[in-house]
Amino acid sequence: MDQTPAAPPGHDHATHQSATSEAGLVLDCGVTLAPVTLAYRTYGTLSPAADNAVLVCHALTLDQYAAETHPVSGRPGWWSRLVGPGLPIDTDRFFVVCVNVLGGCMGSTGPRSPRSDGTPWGTDFPPITIRDMVRAQALVVSHLGIGRLLAVIGGSMGGMQVLSWAATFPERVFAAVPIATAAFHSAQNIAFNEVSRQAIFADPDWQAGRYWEDGRIPARGLAVARMMAHITYLSEEALSRKFGRRRQGETPPPARTAGPQATLGLFGEMFEVESYLRHQGSSFVRRFDANSYLTITRAMDYFDVAVDHGGDLAHAFRGTPTRFCVISFSSDWLFPTAQSRAVARALNRAAANVSFVEIETDKGHDAFLLDEPDFDRTVAGFLAGCAEHVKIKGQSSALDPLKAEP
């Protein structure tokens, strides 16, 4: 693979590492996609033995900027609290790699990438799967001279990639940490994704997916899709704690006994939770492409690790040398704990080395992105144990590890 600095289309000021395979990939749909470019970021130093590499897999609306200021939004890296010197994924000890997924819009080949005639793929971009994303990441891992990853870790769609890595390349993964995820996308989650997609289709600026031809963006539809999805990432408790029924502005809420006429003056006021969701939507459209959103959500919908193994998840991991730490969150209703337990039980049936831990929290699905000390201790303890097993030099994390359920 050739390595060159690259800038995501539409974000010319955002530079990153990039590797290109001219031979490309044969996708699960049968299409050969060539050439293929993967944008990525690395943190820390690869050991001489190339045995300290940790691959971080990002979720649906994230990208490769896991531990640094995002070049478009200006916000801190989405896992800056977890990846860095002395942190649970310790870059003084580990070489961390994060790749923008195939189909993404921050430098990797996707719907916004140019075809041979110079025009974007748009809606002609072939359908991809989570396994296609993993095969593309494997090209980058090989390009970096890494034969076996110490660990692959990720949450949500990133957790799907972790499971696919362990099922597709078991000999290349010493340890796997799937977080807040499942072995297949549920009917409920497919339904949520479809509502989000329909919001994009309904935007007049969608233009049958060729909005780029006259410089349009289906901003309203994409913003609504983001707002819809973001609700599923939170819990009722988290929303109530953060916003309750508070309204914006200085006007105090009326007494509830005043009768219906007393509320008429409030109709122009916005609830704080509405303002929050609108901000989420408007900031999202500045950094994400609508066709990429459609492509990646479809890949999540297709995901089912067991489908090529007679429907038996245990068969996908039979004889695996990979050790697992499966993590869930008690208030996650998008990927509930029952789905993580099903993964852990299948791994047990496959005689895999597996631990499971449910983190008690009211922060919902997004807990893996938020300040959650028990989660931090779990990750730090598991990775430290892996490092000690393969005799990677370095100090253990100062965090006390949280014991996982065997």
Portion of residues in beta strands equals: 15-25%
Low-pLDDT sequence parts = 4-14, 250-265, 395-406
Mean pLDDT: 90
Q: For this structure, what is the CATH class of the domain at 2-187 and 303-389? A: Alpha Beta
Structural class: alpha/beta
User: What is the first-to-last residue Cα distance?
Assistant: 41 Å
CATH homologous superfamily placement of the domain at 2-187 and 303-389: Alpha/Beta hydrolase fold, catalytic domain
Outline the biggest β-sheet. Answer: 9 strands, mixed
Share in helix: 25-40%
What order do the strands of the largest sheet run in, or round the barrel if closed? 1-2-5-9-6-10-11-12-13
CATH architecture of the domain at 2-187 and 303-389: 3-Layer(aba) Sandwich
Query: Number of DSSP strands?
Result: 13
* Number of distinct helices: 10
Q: If you consult CATH, what is the topology of the domain at 2-187 and 303-389?
A: Rossmann fold
Radius of gyration: 22 Å
What's the SSE pattern?
EEEEEEEEEHEHEHHHHHHEHEH
Explain this structure.
Helix 4 packs across helix 6. Strand 10, helix 2 (157-168) and strand 11 (173-179) form a beta-alpha-beta unit. The model is unreliable at 4-14, 250-265 and 395-406 (pLDDT under 50). The protein has helices at 130-143, 157-168, 187-201, 219-233, 236-242, 272-285, 290-302, 313-316, 337-349, 373-389, and strands at 2-3, 17-21, 25-26, 32-33, 36-43, 53-57, 83-84, 89-90, 95-99, 149-155, 173-179, 323-329, 353-359. The chain has a nine-stranded mixed beta sheet, with helices on both faces. Strands 3-4 form a two-stranded antiparallel ribbon. The chain has ten helices and 13 strands. By secondary structure, it is an alpha/beta fold. It has a domain at 2-187 and 303-389: Alpha/Beta hydrolase fold, catalytic domain (Rossmann fold, 3-Layer(aba) Sandwich).
